[in-house]
Design goal:
- The structure is a homodimer of 441-residue chains.
- In chain A, helix 1 (18-26) runs parallel beside helix 8 (327-345).
- Chain A is built from eleven helices and 27 strands.
- In chain A, the strands form nine sheets. Chain A has a six-stranded mixed sheet with strand order 5-2-1-9-21-20, covered by helices on one side.
- Chain A is 29% helix and 26% strand.
- Chain A is elongated and about 70 Å long.
- Chains A and B meet through strand 5, helix 4, helix 5, helix 6 and helix 9 of A and strand 5, helix 4, helix 5, helix 6 and helix 9 of B.
């Protein structure tokens, strides 16, 4: 069958996010062939997308060619493409180009997508923050609004320079802090004739506090820090609809705003819906405590796509609250799935997945972050920020040692490697004209 | 009147390429206000575009936000926009958004665009290499063709993996060398199951030698180096037409090729045609030896848009051969224009522009370049490559001290600066859907 290499046990991993990468890499010494499928040619380091959206990092700094990640893993191959359909009984996938791919073991790690909750105008007029394309689109859009206002002072007060962020979780908080910083430090200098103080960052949260999964003290600290940076934090406010130039709240308030960032929630990737298995409310696939589909030990689901059973007791409906949709859950889930696959080949029975909480953190500004570590340890301020910085650098450097032009060149020269094999979501337009014959091939 | 700051002498510089930047920066201590106009928000370091196209550098490594370049120049302002029309008698510009901009002095430095010479299919099916969008489009297109061939072995031999480059000047030579390197070193490792040797790089040149402006010995050396790297160099071949999947030569040969890069020539930016003044065959504006328009000492034209009089004797038609369209000519021309503007304010008469030849170079491979310096000095091989490397690093570092993620962050932190304010030519698609209400504002 197309895509299988030889006759070894064939593991197909769908998705090269944290969960899929962890599973595929953990199988490097197993007696299997691994095929990693992804619709993009790069892994996106999603925790730092907000930095790209706020112009703090280049897109290529946080995106890594999947082929480069597996370049030295002899039993792995990479394939670009989208999965249209999974035949669980026939044990094969159908790709969007019509080709099929057989598997002996399957790891589904397709992740999550932005959840608009069906609120009118969100899909048409708001930006998500789940992909490099999202982040670049936000950055481009906001910078162009400043150019507009610089050319026409009337736009200073009509919402052109207002960004509304829906969702007070870590993504919304980090986005708000990053934008406030971009406005007050960078754009104020770039646009010396513009009164950048007129630019607004509004953070909306439907509940009565930011960072619902953090300790209330940390959440309060985050709120104070954001407000000191100029962010308007509005709690207990929900979005009724989004218009091209304004955000309308359920209490009737209208906020003129040319930019809306939707960080209010995610749902599991629609691939889950094609499986014909039990899903939770957010579209997550219900799995057993070994992360396999019930009755199908050859199919594991990990990361944001899975409703991994949490450690808590069963709720009133008998269900156990699933683990949160965090990178750490995905990574540990990927490792567990790989261990189960390798163990089953050795005849070992499956084991339950136990998530080890490593803590959660959110950065707020130039030297401020909140971190909640296991054992009730809470960090904030510069210490929290330093912890955040070190953690993310270590995680990033795990993929690639990024360097400046000189070091980059030296690296290319010594290792025959290249840093920039990123395929952007859409091809930029050539200077003269987009070659349509090529773009549609 | 819009856009002028105060009542000082107002100099408008059109284009933030090498010529425009040089002129605007050289006016930093002059008693004038300077407005820099560009259709993009970034300067593109064109000599390294081929590195972006061949995935050696990130786009952001060679693009620099114009506002950042002029952040500390108090008498300069930057405006994003396209010039639709110049009223030389009325001394004002009309922008594409309909607004007008008065000037006392004008520096036109709009540069050059790809010249298709009207050859059928070039505009529709070939890629230029004049902008970041061009370079990213080539990279994306070529990488996707390798993904295609990896999924379908039939595409190995049908031209999917063939890149034809038209034009054996420095751009074509560098592009061919960079692609050969990308194929043989990087993609061979990225696609271990693909016989990358089947990928072809074909370099077409209409004359009987490469690098027509270099000494024949250097051109021969370049050709041998390229051929050793696997490039097929075809001399005295011209393109009759380009089809979606093939390039047809005037001798009837058809080369199946999914990718064609058009590096066969440039013409001056079409802005020149709107002026109603004398143009050369390539659309370049005829200027006096002081680089001003004849009879209009307040309008200078520099860089690729200008036919700057060269040092040679007049030809048979009485015309002096114009200077070549090189970065060094543009930079020196920009400096000259600035000096003329400042001098005229002091009542000094215009002086003739004298171009100082600093040499030309082209890189060919991993440690090979040819360089032709003044005084008949010719460098090649690793020595030429080292000269090329040092020169370009020095030029790049003149704009910005680029650094890796860590250094980048440290830099942002210490200087309140950001590296990534690039607006790509077209906004990438958000993950869910492009917000059409926003993109068209």
């Amino acid at each position: 069958m197309a895509g299988t290499a030889g006759h070894r046990h064939h593991v197909v991993v769908v998705g090269a996010g944290f969960g899929g990468l962890a599973a595929a890499r953990a199988l490097r010494d197993a007696p299997v062939d691994v095929t990693v499928l992804d619709a993009r040619n790069h892994h996106t380091f999603q925790p730092l997308l907000y930095q790209v959206a706020t112009a703090g990092l280049d897109g290529d700094d946080i995106c890594f060619p999947i082929r480069g990640i597996f370049g030295r893993q002899r039993n792995a191959r990479v394939r670009l493409g989208e999965v249209r359909d999974v035949d669980l009984d026939g044990r094969h996938l159908t790709m969007s180009d019509g080709t099929t791919l057989d598997y002996d073991d399957l790891v589904l790690a397709a992740g999550a997508v932005t959840n608009t909750f069906g609120i009118p105008g969100v899909e048409e007029h708001a930006f998500g923050l789940k992909s490099l394309g999202d982040a670049m689109a936000i950055r481009t859009h906001v910078l162009l609004r400043f150019e507009e206002a610089d050319a026409d002072p009337a736009k200073l007060t009509d919402g052109t320079l207002t960004v509304v962020i829906a969702g007070g979780g870590p993504t919304g908080v980090e986005m708000a802090g990053g934008l406030a910083e971009l406005f007050s430090h960078v754009l104020r200098r770039d646009f010396p004739r513009l009164d950048v103080r007129a630019a607004r960052v509004v953070l909306l949260e439907a509940t009565d506090r930011l960072l619902g999964t953090f300790h209330p003290k940390l959440a309060d600290d985050a709120r104070r820090t954001l407000e000191a940076a100029g962010v308007e934090v509005l709690l207990e406010r929900a979005v009724a609809r989004v218009e091209p130039d304004a955000v309308v709240l359920t209490d009737g308030t209208t906020i003129p705003a040319a930019t809306m960032v939707w960080a209010a929630g995610v749902r599991a990737h629609p691939l889950g819906e094609t499986l014909g298995v039990e899903l939770t409310k957010g579209g997550r696939v219900v799995v057993g405590d070994d992360l396999a589909l019930p009755g199908r030990p050859e199919v594991h689901v990990v990361g944001d796509l899975a409703a991994s059973p949490g450690p808590g007791s069963a709720g009133s409906d008998g269900a156990v609250a699933p683990l949160p949709q965090l990178a750490a859950v995905a990574i540990q889930g990927g490792h567990h799935a790989a261990a189960m696959i390798a163990g089953r080949l050795r005849g070992e029975p499956p084991r339950a997945f136990h998530y080890v909480d490593k803590g959660t953190m959110a950065t707020i500004g130039r030297h401020d972050a909140v971190a909640q570590l296991p054992g009730g340890i809470r960090l904030k301020g510069p210490v929290g920020w330093l912890a955040w910085l070190v953690l993310h650098l270590v995680m990033l450097i795990g993929f690639r040692n990024r360097a400046n032009v000189l070091v980059n060149w030296a690296w290319n020269y010594l290792t025959y490697d290249r840093a920039s094999r990123i395929i952007p979501e859409r091809e930029p337009a050539p200077f003269t004209q987009a070659p349509p014959g090529r773009a549609t091939r």
